[in-house]
Amino acid sequence: MIRLTALPPSLPLHHPAALIATWFGAGLIRPAPGTWGTLFAFPFALTIGWAGGSWALLFCSCAAFAGGIWAAGQFCLAAEKDDAPEVVIDEVAAIFLVLAALPMTPVAWVSAFFLFRLFDILKPWPISAIERRFKGGFGVMIDDIAAALFAIFSFILLDTLWLVLT
């Protein structure tokens, strides 16, 4: 059953940090807020990619990362948590990065979604080490960027294997 999480009392949804951190409220959806945040990033990514291509997606990933450091830091401070699950701007920045690196095809984008979510949820080393090492807004954001890099390299590897085997 889908339900919504309440915001910290000191940070209403109309506050810029709450809007950015939760990606316009997507991070408030339960269960699996990170998956919802990633899904809600796709319409934006499709529009950005169609209008400006991979470079525009890369630029938006960097902008989301920079703004996310501030917004995630503010939200986590208000929620009194190191990495509040409602914060999904890290997923947005990361999926924009993955999509910028992959071809704009349905197969690549579906693969991007599943590969990124796999690495973001499992957090293999060094992603887990990065998550433990860094704190604050930067810490919230950087482990998802590492998961994005794992997803990109995995896609390239799988795509290369597919080309060799077929």
Outline the structure in words.
This protein has helices spanning 16-21, 33-79, 89-101, 106-122, 127-133, 136-165; strands at 3-4, 29-30. It is mostly helical and 166 residues long. It has 6 helices and 2 strands; from the N terminus they run βαβααααα. 72% of the residues lie in helices and 2% in strands. The protein has a two-stranded antiparallel ribbon.
* Total count of strands: 2
Radius of gyration: 16 Å
What structural class do helix, strand and pairing data support?
Answer: mainly alpha
Give me the side-by-side strand order of the main sheet: 1-2
What gross morphology would you assign? Answer: globular
Low-confidence stretches: none
Span of the ends, CA to CA: 42 Å
Oligomer: single chain
- What is the tally of helical segments? 6
Largest sheet: 2 strands, antiparallel
The helix/strand order is EHEHHHHH
Residues in helices, as a percent range: over 70%
Strand proportion, as a percent range, falls in under 5%
Mean pLDDT: 97
Give a short summary of the structure.
With 166 residues, the chain is mostly helical.
